[in-house]
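User: hey, got a sec? need Triosephosphate isomerase folded
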Amino acid sequence: MARVPLIAGNWKMNLDHLEATYFVQKLAWLLRDAHFDYKHCEIVLFPAFTSLRSVQVLVEADNLRIRYGAQSVSVTSQGAFTGDVSADMLSQLRCSYVIVGHSERRKYHPEDDANIVDQVRAVLAAGMQPILCVGESFEERRQGIELEFAVGQVHDVTRDLNEAEAAALIIAYEPVWAIGTGMVATPQSAQDAARAIRAHMRQAFNDTVANTVRILYGGSVSSQNAAQLIQEADVDGFLVGGASLEVEEFSKIARIT
Ligand code: PEP
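Assistant: Yep! Here you go:
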């Protein structure tokens, strides 16, 4: 089964709503100019919450094929949770995806596996797809347990999902030591992790789930290394941080795929 590659730009806490709309317009223009075929590669942007509505209005007004989503979500649906944003609020803005379990959220916010499972459920219940981030630290890699660690994180979050829920997941393998450091994983180690995660989904669920779930690589992806990484059989695209803030650079990564 052919999986459509997905190139996602995680802007983190960068680009205000004016910069965001400029970026979306320019990206659409660059990709149109390059006769980009959205049927063979999905493009998804993750702006800050404050830009989502502006991006939605632009995408819908100009009938753009670019998708967008949120960088995190509340596990509760409404109420006295100051500063939180619910999954229903995001789906009303026609977000397609929500990043869940990014290492920066795990580090700077109290997001543990139980909370991440609840986020996954909230996203699915609202009709969107979670992009679940997993990946080892430098210390786990040094100990040679990187595959067990990443697969263990997938297992901990997915073990109570049913097959339909599991098939709706996208998994981003993002070794923490590679995020924002310029130290990209080798294509072979990205493939080893993606293959191990897919094998786990096959064993825990079934062939259909394993063959459907897209597995992205994230960690210092740029237009210099994307072409080699995307050759790997189990790497279905990228979650791009720093290099997604520059529209020409991000469009180059998209066009490589
Ligand atoms: C990320 O934060 O998801 C990421 C992959 O960042 P960078 O591309 O900057 O390493």
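Quick note: The domain at 6-256 is CATH 3.20.20.70 (TIM Barrel). Let me know if you need anything else on Triosephosphate isomerase.
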